[in-house]
Amino acid sequence: MTSTFHSLETSRRSLFTQTSALNTTGHNIANANTPGFTRQRVNMSASKPMEAYGMTHSTVPGQLGTGVEVTSVVRIRESFLDEQYRNENKGLGSWNVQFDTLDKLQTIINEPSDTGISSLVNSFYKAWSDLSKDPENITGRKIVKETTLALTDALNHTSKQLSDLNADLTNSIELNTSKINSILSSVSDLNRQITRIEGSGSDNANDLRDQRDLLVDQLSGLVNIQVTELPDGYQINMGNTTLVSGDTQTALTSQVLQDAYASGDLNSGEVYGTFLSRDKYVADYQKQLDSFANTLVNGEFQVTLPAGSVLPAGTVLNGVTYNDPNRTLATDLTVTIQGINGLHKLGYSINDGQPIAGGDFFSTTDGGPVTAANITLSQAIVNNPSLIATSLRTTGTTPNEQVVKGNNGLAILMSDLKDTKFNFGDNLTSPVTVDDYFKAIVGQVGVQANEAKRQADNAQVLTNQVDEKRQSVSGVSLDEEMSNLIMFQHAYSAAARVMTTFDEMLDKLINGTGTVGR
User: Fold this and answer.
1) What share of the chain is helix, strand, coil (3-state, %, to 5)?
2) Tens-place pLDDT, residues 249-294
3) Dist CA 312 CA 226 (whole Å)
4) What is the average pLDDT value for the chain, to the nearest integer?
5) With a threshold of 0.85, does the pTM exceed it?
6) Residue 36, by phi and psi: left (phi above 0), alpha (psi -120 to 50) or beta?
7) What is the DSSP string of 447-502?
């Protein structure tokens, strides 16, 4: 026969189970806005039934149900969507950094504008053109001096901005290295805690698993990772480099990441995008800007010297050395010149004594090879603009030779350089004008920035799509939780009513049986 108190135990189990479900629902509602939280569900099953009691063998058909019990509290999460999210997130991190860097490069280059390098180059040529109209005018020479200083200052400033951007990216790598190490340390610690809690096989460390997955999501935006769940926790690899295995962490340095970038183990994520931006984009534009500055000073180009020009003694052109009495050109001569410095040396500056051949027009602040960082106007010209060479002719012979001050031959050749094609090297198949070369730099950064933005936008859309799918599975729906709350509340109330009913029955049995006739 059935135990008198059997139903009380059945009701008690139901009360405890529904209480657990209510507590879990409340936990879900409380964390509806917690980043990384995964909704949890109480799995219930009928507790083990038993055979009806009897002296030898029960004659009651069937078995006695013993109620309900909690078998587990689980997270509602799909690992496949997690993997998809992390794969998309690493691409998003990489393209965001690349676009941010290229956007800054566009700001640094600042073209097209009225104050950019291109505008200053045009002002430089215009100053020479104006000077050619009145080569003896000291004001025109000072304007050439000031426009040249403005151009070199702009190149110096732009180069410094590129160097600063390079340093910022290097600093970002250092900061992200520290961030990665902190995440890896936390993941290894969580691996240890989760393994300890779940070691008995009866408990699921759901909230700790949520914390670990949130950290791994953040890590996926920094570097490309592969996550494998092992008995002792997550194993996280970056290519062939193991970052975490169980409670063991590999401490990273910026050099380790640099080597991983070089070997291909690091091929996506924010850190990869930072290395790529620094070593490809910034370095490439710094190189092109240095080439631009050096070509202005030393780059080869062809120019035609007009007949009647008197070359300074000792001048070597096309392999021919010009000395008295063969310094005067009988016909036009097309020659290859080594930059503006080379052309300036063919002319003469204003001088009341013997002719002074033009010296170097440009120089460097540190005496080293010409770069955008160190190019400047010759200090001699800064101190004395009269040393700017404008004439190609002299009169008389040594020692009575005099400069033809009103001659503007060199000034005209300088102003004509606007349309002259220089040999920039840089794997260019043919010479181009200075203006065209700089326009190519501007166009290149514009195209690269647009492509990076397009890729970043696409990566953001894909990442959002996967995250929305993941949230539709794992996220907390307050409407659904409220429905569950009502369902579990009714179940609890019904179980309590069952217990009350049997309590009343037992009261009648215990206190009312055998009282007839008293």
Assistant:
1) 55, 15, 30
2) 999 999 999 999 999 999 999 999 999 999 999 999 999 999 999 9
3) 71
4) 91
5) yes
6) left
7) HHHHHHHHHHHHHHHHHHHHHHHHHHHHS--HHHHHHHHHHHHHHHHHHHHHHHHH
